[in-house]
Every structure is written in C-alpha cells, then in structure tokens.
Amino acid sequence: MSEHAALIAPAAAEFTAVLRGIGEIDLAARTPCAEYDVRALLNHLLYWGPWLEAAGRKAAPPAVSSGEAESDLVGADWLAAIEGRTARLVELFGAPAAWEGETTFGGTPLPASMVGYMVLDEFVFHGWDLASAIGAKFTVRPDVAEAVYAIALEIGDQARSMKVYGEEVAVPEDATTFERALGASGRDPGWKR
C-alpha cells in the first residue's frame, strides 16, 4: 500500500506525457473504454479528479450540481486543469501517509489505500487508454506494471461489480506483466484504434 507511494510520480509522468500529445483532432477518437471517446475520457478525469484529491486529503467530497455524464469540463484549458490536478495528486499520494487509515470517496468510507489504488490505476490504465486512442507510445516501468497487476487481481471482482473494470480479457501465456494487468482490468492489450 504505502510502498506504492513511490510509484505515483513515475506513473503520473508518463500519463502527463500522453496528455501533452493530444490535439483537438484527437478528441473524437475512440478509446479502449467502449463508452468513452478521448473527450469523454478527459471529462471523466476532470470530473473525478477533485473527488480523488478530497479523499487523499481525508476531506469532504466536492459539492457537485450534476453527474459525470451531464458535465462538460473539457474546455480550452483542459490540459492545464488535468496537469494541475495530477501534480496535486502526486503530492498527496506520493506521501505514504495518504495511503494509511480510512477516508471517504463520494461519502462512502473506505481504506485510504483503496483511493491510492484508484489514483495509480487512473494514471496507468487511462494513460494507456489515451495513448492507444491517439497512437502514442506508452511506457510503464516494471515496478509500476507489477503494482497495477497486483492491484487489478486484488480488487478485480469488486471493481467489476462496480462497473469500474470490464470483464477480464484473456491474454497469451507470453504476455508481459503490464499486458496481464490490462487484461485483468478488462482491457484488450491488442486493442487497435
């Protein structure tokens, strides 16, 4: 759990590099997340980022007037907004204390480590989703790949029941650790745009 704190910054760096490669023309591109194109996935990140940050601070969730589907948060400054949120999440979850004890997410009490898992997953899995959608390279350090694979195995059933992960995707026997993590999270490592 708290040992994952050191993985947040490198995962966020790769995630941010992908974000910087997204152009206006890419916003309508489909992603491996069937319900999201690039714009909708960016909207998802912008919508849930404040919730993750509040949970990391062990503070009350943000007040919202509409749900994710009704929100349109991808304005002209979307990149700066996500980069700023990412930097704050790195600061919070890069510290072992954020992974300890209890917090709430959307009013639901849960272990703080679970929110840390969500942050790492957002950076790695959604970073891959976005990179795949725009045809960009996505590099995952071996220790980060091992961590997200272990997380996907640990929380997979719960995440699937909450519709956070899709049904597990079978991968070849010679699949890399990261490809196994993708499959465990319901993603097809061989997905093509």
TrEMBL record:
A Pfam family recorded for this sequence: MDMPI_N
UniProt-listed InterPro entries: CHP03086, DinB/YfiT-like, Maleyloyr_isom, MDMPI_metal-binding
Domain Mycothiol-dependent maleylpyruvate isomerase metal-binding: 9-131
Domain of life: Bacteria
Molecular function terms from GO: metal ion binding
Protein name: TIGR03086 family protein
Source organism per UniProt: Amycolatopsis regifaucium
Lineage: Bacteria, Bacillati, Actinomycetota, Actinomycetes, Pseudonocardiales
